[in-house]
Amino acid sequence: MDPLSWIQLGAVLAVFIVFLIAPLIAITYRALASGIQWFAFVFTDPFYFALSLQPTSTFPFVTIQGVRGTLFTWVGSDLVILRGFDLGVIPNSLLVASLTTIFSSIIGFILALMFARYKFCGSNFLRIALLVPLLSTPFVGAIGFKRMTIADGVLNTLFYRYLHLIPFRFEISDISAMIIVQTLLFYPIVFLNAYTAIVNIDPTMEEQAENLGASGFRLFRSVTLPLATPGLEAGALLVFILSLEDLGTPIVFVGTAAQKVLTYQVFQRMFTPAGYISEEATALALLLLIISAVIFVVIRKYVSLRRYAMLTKGGIWRPRTRKISPQTALVIYLFCASLLFVALLPHMGVILLAFAGQWGGGILPDYFTLNNFRYIFSDKLTFQSIINSLSYSAAATAIIILLGVSAAYLVSRKKVAGMAALDTLITIPIAIPGIVVSTGLFLMFLPTFLSPIATAAPLLIMSYTVRKFPFTVRSVFSGLEQTDKALEEAAVNVGASKQRTFFNITMPLVFLNVLGGSMLSFIYSMSEVSTSIVIGAANPSTAPMTFKMYTTYYSLGGGTFPAAAMGFILMILQLIMIVGSNVILRRRATPMLGV
Amino acid sequence: MECEPQESVRLKIESENVTKRFANVIALDNVSLRINDKELYTLLGPSGCGKTTFLRSLAGFELVDSGKILFDGVDVTLEPAHKRNTGMVFQNYALWPHMTVFDNVAYGLKIRRVPKGEVDKRVRSALEMVKLGGLEKRTPHQLSGGQQQRVAVARALVINPEVLLFDEPLSNLDAKLRLEMRAEIKRIQRDLGITTAYVTHDQEEAMSISDRIAIMQRGKVMQVGSPKDIYFKPENAFVADFIGQGTFFKGKVTGQDHFLNVTIENGNIVKAVPSDPALPPRAGDEVLVAIRPENFKIGGKAENKFECVIYHISFLGKTQRVQGKMGDLTVILEADPDIPLEVDKRVEVSAEPEHTLAIKLTET
After folding, report:
1. For the domain that residue B155 is a member of, what is the CATH number?
2. Contacts with A486 from chain B: Cβ below 8 Å
């Protein structure tokens, strides 16, 4: 370890310890210090944990009590509402995350197999189109989805009132809405991970199996599936985490059981009326932290910087894609088209809302207008929030680049004990729910000079830095792994020092990876919700855009349209950044999650 | 160079009891080697024998766990890689894709703050030497494998290194190019008189270019010697087996007259000379009897006679290589292609005791 490495290591460690580990310790300390009665409370209070086992005298001798709510309710004669059961906050969270994961995995894996194995006219276009939900921004998805599916929303008006294709109006609400919105949001993550895993399977592995007589389902079960499993599992676990930490969706489904999930409850109960951080919220946050920590341990097996690598030496890489008959293609088109339609409902909703002046019960808004955008740019606080977001994200991205390149370099090049720990440390932010981080930051920094009440800027910048760190590191790391170490050794051999080699050889070689990765870090900082709305609330004039979207949405007099317009702007920014990043990175790095 | 008197031979590189471990694998086990000035010294061995680790230790990329490395008698064990002034040619050439051929070669000179005019001159002459004059402005992508190899050699030469280090430089080239580059590397090395350590697993390559060869196995040096010595006087069973082809019988020394009498596996007695006259096997010692294929004659009057059934014949042009079976034992010999031989026919072959080596079997 040379001096440069020590400086790099020290800086990365300092930032992560101060702005991630210490706040998490603060939560733990605070939650335990306030006594375990709060834990006892959340596990016995039916609001949090409604389930209990009641002994009975007949088989199976126990019944589960406490399940409230129903799957469907009839309202009047022509409205069916899909709701879902309410089991209490804690089981709800786990149920939503589990079902979202299962549904996303099924859809994602089917798509992955289909596109990895079949070539048909338009398959490339469809494959990319089906990834579009990745562009969804916070609130936006849920707001748009709600507009499309409520009782007098676009779909019901179209299919019930005008086309008479369905016998009653159909609304999705409560827990069901959470699950469906999240599934539509997250299935591309499984799709992407599984697809990458399948196309990266060395074709000769399957050829060998066929050569030995395996075919069809047996080939799939014995060779293809096991080789693709790491990708599938990595995707599924990421979905579970993202579902668990999602705060944007419950915020939108006001007044329904969709808000009875851990993230929203921590958010809502964070401050006591006297302005202190409530012990109840701290206990809940710790619980959420523990759940995520457990999942992180599992996820760690798959999602480190190091990736599952195929051992392939030479040979011809002949992808196992097949042409398919027109009939099969038709089936696939129909499947993809309907999925695409449903998956893009939120986006269509948001775009319509952003340009809507008023919207009664029609398929389209009553009239289109640019007033929402005019409002955004003329309202001082709103415009300021956009500037805030841009500058915080830029600052965070700058720090991420500075530290992220160092971290990736250390993990990739210094094969010494402890680098695995560094890898773990910088992967942690993927797994820690934002609301937990923001609770911790508040607890820790409220009484200090970094107090968010003075200005939210420093804490937000550091929170973005830590939370969006993995995007850049991941990209740079894969760039480094694809860059032969001998290129650096050759420079050292002819006399270049470590520092000189780093700047003359290493940096130019991974420059595009830095650029691509930092674009992702930037845009995901822009659309960060959890810490933005908590820390931003402490000082609204220094709050970022997502905080303003949140308050605008809840403001009296219908803030939905301007909020959607802000979402639209974010969507456009995301589109530019993600497409740009993908063009730059192309085959240099596989995207991690894209959310 | 060949007329230089022996006394003037100077040690250039020494390693003293160098040991290096990776996790629980021992890559270098007490390796002590002495490489003479202006010598082309090859480290040869099967993959995983530690030869590349040793080369990288010379370059300073691996810090050894214990032992010393000296250049010109100066201890460089703890000297960082960029201060060692070695010119290394990597297996995959390691040309920087973001630099032109010129910049690749010039890089080391720029680091040494050589004036620009001289950089130009030296880069050009280095490229001339590897016959790449005129390609300065190309990028590595625009070069063929052989050309990339030459740039890598030029880049290593241009800094006037103390020693040249080659890490399997020819393994990525096709067979024909390999022969050509082999000759060229040897020519440049000889012309410049530059001490060179060369790693390869290809024994033919090692035999054809080396002044001396160190044969390694599992981190240990098994034998050091000229190509000829190693071929004809293998000091142990590993070297005898690893280098070239041969017929091997396990046996036990049961007596000694002018020659050693070795009773081999099938009960026959073979007369042999000790492979290492300094440490000859004694009666009762387990030995390996080794005979090179060219030392057998079909028929013939030599003292060691064997009767075998021909199992396989391969025609090699100047000779035919014959595999014969003697019960479970295999005999490999070369015969004049004019001798009519047929598979499954019985023949008698013989070898002189002087060409029959008894190699003491020790541990491993």
Report:
1. 3.40.50.300
2. 90-92, 94
